[in-house]
Amino acid sequence: MPNLKEDDNALREVLTQAKTIAVVGHSDKRDRTSYQIAQFLRQSGYTVYAVNPLIKEIDGQPSYAALQEIPEPVDIVNVFRRSEYLSEIIDEAISINAKTVWAQLGVWHQASAQKAVDAGLKVVMDACIKIEYLRLQVDSTGNV
Predict the structure, then answer these.
(1) Average pLDDT of the segment spanning 84-109
(2) pTM (2 decimals)?
(3) Which of 23, 40, 81, 106 is deepest in the core (most CB within 10 A)?
(4) CATH number, span 4-135
(5) Domain locations in the chain?
């Protein structure tokens, strides 16, 4: 299975090399996991873009309707949507030349993962980016 979840070195490399993360399904509600993790990623030094067509802005920052609207290249597309949406999100990630698609805990779709890998993207499925960041003791300067 083309999933980096079991490869700590690969996960660490993805997290240390990334600068820009698009959070697909970013909520504007502070009690939602997507909101909390996006905030954590911002505090950890990443540039984080919210992608949610139902919300215009979150905490004064614009929320984008689609990945294609983000004004700079994206390193990681972090997905907080149900598995059935992964295929279209991966199509968008491929179209913007994202480097990695990271699907949160419980989000997994084998055919979509394979499509991303075939297009040259790295794939992490069914893993929480915050948990992995903390477990691997990554910091945004690339030190371990």
Answers:
(1) 96
(2) 0.94
(3) 23
(4) 3.40.50.720
(5) 4-135
